[in-house]
Amino acid sequence: MRKIWKRLAVYSACSLLGAAAPAFMPGTSVHMEAMAQTKPGINTFGWQQELDGWRYRNSDGSYAKGCFGAVEDVWYYFDSEGYMVTGWQQVGDDWYYFEKDGHMVTGPAYIAQTYYYFEASGKLDESFYETD
Length: 132
Known about the structure:
The protein is of the alpha+beta class. It contains two helices and eight strands.
């Protein structure tokens, strides 16, 4: 009789956990919100996916904000909230383009069926184009 009650308790606990587990699976909004609210030290440093996009946490717990940053020799730009940007971005007076994965484009590139050239710094080389 005792074994039956133990099994019933284990099965009940497993079924409760199984019902709630999909909400906490990686990539779900509940999981990303939980990750966004973790305290420094629990999640050390590196890329963090949150509800509003990707951020990079520095080893001191701060986020890269409003700046360019290289992660493993790949350059990115982080907005004032610390989120990685994509697409066309104007930084100061200069234009840059960031692929869907966030990396900064350099050299020649076709974007939306138009040919562009970006300097080694990522800045659009406007002297390459004729302007009226």
